[in-house]
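Deliverable D4.2, example record:
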Amino acid sequence: MVRPEIKAFFDPTTFTISYVIHDGAGGPCAIIDPVLDFDPKAARISTLSAQSIIDFVKEKNLCVEWILETHAHADHLSAAYWIKQQIGGKIAIGEGITGVQAHFAKLFNLGADFVADGSQFDHLFAAGERFNIGSLVAEVLFTPGHTPACVSYRIEDAVFVGDTLFMPDYGTARADFPGGDAHALYESIQHILSLPAETRLFMCHDYLPGGREPKWETTVAEQREHNLMIHAGVSEEEFVSARKDKDAKLAAPVLILPSLQVNIRAGQLPEPEDNGVQYLKLPLNQLGKRR
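Output generated by the structure prediction step:
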C-alpha cells in the first residue's frame, strides 16, 4: 500500500480543514473541500484560502486531477470552481447531490435556468466507485446522515470523512439538515469504524473544544475508544436520542444560505444581473426555528 502525502489547510473563520493529497512532488494530486472566503457583513468574496492551496500545488509542481467535495457544505462556500479556473482539475461529488440540489433549488426559487441533475459538477461518484490519484487508489464511501449526499473518500490508509465525524473530544456531525437522519448517520459511522483500527481519519472541521489547538487527524481505534458521542458500546437508540437532543439546541450555521446556493452549483457564483452585479438570495422565514 502506498502511503499518501497529505497537506492540511485550516481555515480559522469557518473551522474547515481542506486537503491536498498526492504521492510525491511532481505528480498528480487531489484537493478536498477547498474554502472560498466570504465576509457575511460586507457580502465580499476573496480567495486568500484557496490561493494558499494553489501556492502549495505549484511549489510541489503538482498537477490537479480532482477537486473533491464530501458534500454540499452549509458552513462555507466552496472554492472548487475558482481553483479549477486557475489550475484545472475535475470537480466531483457523490451522486446524491441531485436530491440536495432539487430541495434547495425550490428554497432559492432558482427557476428553469437551474437543472438539478448534477451537471454543474464534472463527475458524480457512485457508492463504491474507485479512481486513482497517480499511484494512489481511492474509493468512494457513501456516508449519509449529516446530509443525504455525504460521501467519504478512502485513499489508501486514509479516509477523509467530511462532516460525518469530528475529533473524539467533539463527537459527530449534526443530522437535522433537510434530508439528514440520525439513524443513517449512526450506520455511516459504524461503517467507518469497521475499517482496520490503524486507518487514519481526517476531519473536515475542528471547533477547538476547550480552546485547544486545531486537530484534524485521528484513527479508527481512537474514535472507537474515545469519541464522546459514539464510542464502542453506544447503541443506535442512545446515539439517536443524544444527537436529536443536541441538534434541537443548535442554531443554523452563519453561512448556510449563501453557502448552499453556491455549493449546489459546484462553487460557481450566480450570473451577474443586467447591472453587472452578482446577487445571493436570502429567503425570509424559511429555515426552521431554533431554541
